[in-house]
């Protein structure tokens, strides 16, 4: 069974623009490999210094076996980011749409 879910994630604690420029293409490759192609993103200065990157899906993702895929995606995203920014904080939020 598949579900329609919205994906939002925030990558905080990026020390400088060099970290942003390393992380963003790596995350884009991960999204491409998962065939997630409709994301809107923002880069913002963080109140604590450095930068944060946030992305949200433009449309709901249709995911089969979300109970398995979602945790695997979260882990893959965290590993992808930590390759380039080991101290970055990755938060993932899922919104399961109520389509009644």
Residue share in β-strands: 35-45%
Domains counted in the coordinates: how many?
A: 1
Which architecture per CATH? 2-Layer Sandwich
Shape: elongated
CATH uppermost class: Alpha Beta
Q: Structural class from helices and strands?
A: alpha+beta
CATH superfamily: ACT domain
Helix percentage: 25-40%
Tally of helical segments: 2
What's the order of the H and E elements?
EHEEEHE
How many strand elements? 5
Briefly note the CATH topology name: Alpha-Beta Plaits
Main pleated sheet: 5 strands, antiparallel
Distance between the termini: 17 Å
Structural account:
The chain contains 2 helices and 5 strands; from the N terminus they run βαβββαβ. The protein is 36% helix and 39% strand. A hairpin with a 5-residue loop joins strand 2 (39-45) and strand 3 (51-57). The chain has a single domain (2-96), classed as 2-Layer Sandwich (Alpha-Beta Plaits), CATH 3.30.70. The longest helix is centred in the C-terminal third of the chain and has 19 residues, at 66-84.
Q: Quick gist of this model?
A:
By secondary structure, the chain is α+β, with helices and mostly antiparallel strands. It is built from 2 helices and 5 strands; from the N terminus they run βαβββαβ. The longest helix is centred in the C-terminal third of the chain and has 19 residues.
Q: Which key terms come to mind for this protein?
A:
100 residues, alpha+beta, Alpha-Beta Plaits, five-stranded antiparallel beta sheet, 2 helices, 5 strands, 39% strand, elongated
């Amino acid at each position: 069974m598949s579900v329609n879910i919205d994906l939002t994630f925030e990558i905080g604690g990026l020390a400088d623009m060099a970290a942003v420029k390393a992380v963003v293409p790596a995350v884009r490759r991960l999204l491409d490999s998962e065939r997630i192609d409709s994301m809107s993103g923002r880069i913002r200065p963080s109140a604590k210094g450095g930068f944060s990157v946030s992305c949200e899906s433009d449309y709901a993702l249709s995911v089969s076996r979300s109970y398995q895929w979602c945790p695997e995606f979260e882990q893959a995203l965290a590993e992808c980011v930590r390759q380039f920014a080991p101290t970055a904080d990755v938060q993932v939020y899922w919104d399961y749409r109520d389509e009644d």
